[in-house]
């Protein structure tokens, strides 16, 4: 039986390998037929390793994530075709083999959903992140930053060095929790949910597609042995249970500008029309949006938005502070612009052009969430001279794209916010730390507004300087 199963797996791997063979692009070799190039894709330096492979193989090449054939590209034209012109063939992200199927699972969020279901969840959530509602949420963000600044001023002294990143994580989690869930309390002080979410998750977060049963069995075994062996419960399970309680609350108890309020307004847990086969081309622009969300979709969407919305923003702010500390003249220029504001409002913060450019330049240099950007090919197609077979995954190598001399010039490694004051069409099109096309990050405007508020308050009060004998970010 073991031999038969081994032979079946071997045949599937050979079949998967053939998906990216003879398609017009080079394929990265692997020493391990079972794991393929997972050592590259699951390392802490994946973005640098992909950049190295790009220099060796060119802008587009193939590799194997276990038995999953994957194309990596930093070619602007290919990215444009996938994200815009042929989006109907690439409306899905690469599916996580250890998760439930996004078409049939009762609980799914926008990031995992495909086709019509993705379009419906995204459209109904987008109303909560419109400019009109962001204006209403501005005071919530500002209130959280007020508490953050008061705490910071109590802690800091002239000779003291403070580690800002964990404090920024607490702040951004407070902001996204209040804006998303709408409960009238902060969570910057010893919040149990944040402590849970900062824990490391199971090391088996992604397994081989043909061995999915191992991941599912592993998860069930973990649950089975948690109680007798006094193991910690999965942090995500605890947080999801918490969200179940919050979503079950009466709608009148929640802020009318929170994301949750908008989703609860269209909740229909008895509706079963969410089951849609998305394994086919889909013209999302012609889809009529059904104004309904299930309870499971709302819970998962809240979980996704809070998880995706705190650490990424904290990282962006930390990188920006690092760059300003190493470029003091640019920090002073930014401070002068911010000093012109008597007060910080939703309207006047939009006119801080240099701050906006500094944020964009930071995300060009450090597109830290870009490895989440992926697509899956739903139907075989041709893009230029390359063949994209059905089932192949596509990952955008944003780091190589953002450091491309042909697009950004010879000073690509320098922090130069001014490049975005006169940004070319090509540069604007190929700046994609939030992704591109219809599946661009839904929270981009929220994150940028939040970053602007925090940086304005910090730079009105403090200056950042480089600490000697500290290693550089590379």
From TrEMBL:
Protein name in the entry: Unspecific monooxygenase
Cofactor: heme
Entry keyword Transmembrane helix: no
Family stated for the protein in its record: Belongs to the cytochrome P450 family.
One Pfam entry name: p450
Residues reported in the UniProt entry to bind heme: 441
Keywords recorded for this protein, A-Z: Heme, Iron, Metal-binding, Monooxygenase, Oxidoreductase
GO terms of molecular function: heme binding; iron ion binding; monooxygenase activity; oxidoreductase activity, acting on paired donors, with incorporation or reduction of molecular oxygen
Species: Onchocerca flexuosa
């Amino acid at each position: 039986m073991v031999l038969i199963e081994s032979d079946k797996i071997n045949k599937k791997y050979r079949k998967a390998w053939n998906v990216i063979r003879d398609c017009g692009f080079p394929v990265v070799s692997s020493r391990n037929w079972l794991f393929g190039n997972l050592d590259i894709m699951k390392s802490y330096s994946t973005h640098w390793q992909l950049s190295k492979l790009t220099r060796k193989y060119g802008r587009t090449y193939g590799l194997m994530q276990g038995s999953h054939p994957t194309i990596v590209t930093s070619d602007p034209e290919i990215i444009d075709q996938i994200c815009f012109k042929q989006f109907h063939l690439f409306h899905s992200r690469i599916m996580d083999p250890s998760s439930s199927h996004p078409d049939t699972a009762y609980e799914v969020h926008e990031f995992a959903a495909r086709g019509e279901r993705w379009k419906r969840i995204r459209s109904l959530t987008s109303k909560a992140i419109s400019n009109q509602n962001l204006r209403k949420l501005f005071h919530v963000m500002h209130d959280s930053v007020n508490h953050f600044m008061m705490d910071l001023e109590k802690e800091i002294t002239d000779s003291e060095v403070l580690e800002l990143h964990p404090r920024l994580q607490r702040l951004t989690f407070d902001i996204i929790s209040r804006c998303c869930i709408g409960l009238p309390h902060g969570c910057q002080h010893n919040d149990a949910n944040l402590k849970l979410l900062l824990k490391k998750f199971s090391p088996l977060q992604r397994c081989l597609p043909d061995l999915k049963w191992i991941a599912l069995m592993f998860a069930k075994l973990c649950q089975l042995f948690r109680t007798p062996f006094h193991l910690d419960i999965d942090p995500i399970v605890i947080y999801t249970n918490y969200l179940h309680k919050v979503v079950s609350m009466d709608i009148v108890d929640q802020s009318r500008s929170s994301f949750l309020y908008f989703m609860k307004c269209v909740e229909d847990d008895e509706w079963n029309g969410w089951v849609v086969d998305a394994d086919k081309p889909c013209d999302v622009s012609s889809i009529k949006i059904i104004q309904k969300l299930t309870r499971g979709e709302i819970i998962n969407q809240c979980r996704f938005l809070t998880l995706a919305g705190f650490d990424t923003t904290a990282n962006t702010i930390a990188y920006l502070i690092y760059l300003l500390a190493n470029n003091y003249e640019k920090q002073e220029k930014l401070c002068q612009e911010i000093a012109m504001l008597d007060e910080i409002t939703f309207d006047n913060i939009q006119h801080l052009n240099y701050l906006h450019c500094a944020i964009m330049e930071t995300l060009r240099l450090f597109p830290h969430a870009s490895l989440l950007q992926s697509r899956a090919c739903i139907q075989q197609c041709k893009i230029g001279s390359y063949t994209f077979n059905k089932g192949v995954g596509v990952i955008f190598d944003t780091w190589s794209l953002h450091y491309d001399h042909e697009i950004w010039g010879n000073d690509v490694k320098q922090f130069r916010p001014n490049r975005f004051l006169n940004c070319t069409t090509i540069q604007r099109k190929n700046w994609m730390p939030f992704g591109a096309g219809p599946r661009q990050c839904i929270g981009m405007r929220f994150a940028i507004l939040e970053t602007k508020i925090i940086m304005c308050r910090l730079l009105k009060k403090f200056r950042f300087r480089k600490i000697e004998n500290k290693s550089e970010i590379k």
